[in-house]
Write a structure and sequence with these properties.
Elements: E1 7-14, H1 18-29, E2 34-37, E3 51-52, E4 62-63, H2 64-77, E5 81-83, E6 87-91, E7 97-101, E8 105-114, E9 118-120, H3 126-130, E10 136-137, H4 140-143, E11 151-155, H5 159-169, E12 174-178, H6 188-196, E13 200-203, E14 206-212, E15 219-224, E16 230-234, E17 237-240, E18 244-246, E19 277-279, H7 291-312
């Protein structure tokens, strides 16, 4: 590949959820000529969420995929260059920064905004994927509301699982919580809260064997790891809370991350340890993980990038 195939980009945005698209809206309005690559899942995690009721400005709620189409159209109308393609490798050793798309196309960017998001970890059951969006969910805060007054199950053992079980306990009649070992990984205080909550029933040494139901979740078959016995409980919802995986692998060599792979940003900013490289949305946020907070951090990243580029006089 000769040098003539290198494309020069002023502001490159990698990823296309609320963070990436919001960054594109702001960057385009600031005349930064942003180019956004959508990645493997255009629109991000919201495209596998059905009803979104907690995003401000949609009084009747909105379907996740529809909302992401709106975000994309708005970014495009402002003049962002939105493209399909996956960033597969980067070299942040010197400016301009090099980014390869689909392993072949080479870009050189003056500023880079990483908005590659995170992916929920799944158990890998066929029934779990088939009923995803029909009672199976990886986000209690997003979807718990739809199960008010019903019985649900949740699997997970960390702080997030405990938090989501407690959140569901306020809405649902009973929360059946599956913990795969004989103890939780969650902090002591979170465990105590769960164990003191009357309508959370904890199943130790338990796995989800199968999610049952034709077109929607109707029951869950639970397997005891020790005895091998199975029990079936009727539930309307099944929440998988075994963690998220930030989509940050290609940046590992250059960007500071925590043990789980979340990109570290300087508090109160979107700045990473590499100047001119910014991170927004779920790839750097394991605490809130909401569409509205991701959008807010996308705005921060675009403003930080704009200030960086003007200070550099690029």
């Amino acid at each position: 590949m000769g040098d003539n195939s290198v494309e020069k980009i002023h502001c490159l945005i990698i990823g296309s959820g609320p963070a990436g698209y919001t960054a594109a809206v702001y960057a385009a309005r600031a005349n930064m000529k942003p180019v956004l690559y959508q990645g493997i899942q255009p629109g991000g995690q919201l495209t596998i969420t059905t009803e979104v009721e907690n995003y401000p400005g949609y009084p009747n709620g909105v379907q996740g995929p529809d909302m992401m189409v709106d975000f994309e159209k708005q970014a495009a109308r402002m003049g962002a260059d939105i493209r399909f393609g996956l960033a597969t490798k980067v070299d942040f050793s010197q400016q301009p920064y090099k980014v390869w798309i689909d392993e072949e196309k080479l870009l050189e960017a003056d500023a880079v905004i990483i908005a590659t998001g995170a992916s929920a970890k799944w158990l890998g059951l066929e029934s779990e994927q088939r009923l995803n969006g029909f009672g199976v969910s990886a986000c209690a805060v997003c979807d718990g509301f739809f199960f008010r007054g019903k019985e649900v199950a949740i699997i997970g053992a960390g702080d997030t699982a405990a938090e989501e079980a407690l959140y569901l306990s306020k809405l649902c009649t009973t929360v059946h919580m599956l913990v795969r070992k004989e103890q939780m990984r969650a902090s002591k205080v979170m465990q105590d809260r769960v164990l003191k909550t009357a309508n959370i029933k904890v199943y130790w040494n338990s796995e989800a064997d199968e999610v049952l139901g034709e077109n929607k979740v109707e029951a869950l078959r639970i397997k005891n790891n020790k005895s091998g016995d199975t029990t079936t409980i009727p539930v309307s919802g099944f929440f998988v809370a075994i963690g998220h995986q930030p989509n940050s692998d290609i940046f590992k060599e250059w960007i500071d991350m925590d043990d789980a792979g979340y990109i570290k940003t300087i508090a109160g900013t979107s700045k990473t340890n590499v100047e001119g490289v910014f991170a927004a949305g779920d790839v750097q946020d394991k605490i809130y993980r909401q569409a509205v907070t991701a959008a807010g951090s996308g705005c921060m990243a675009a403003l930080d990038a704009e200030r960086y580029l003007s200070a550099k006089g690029i």
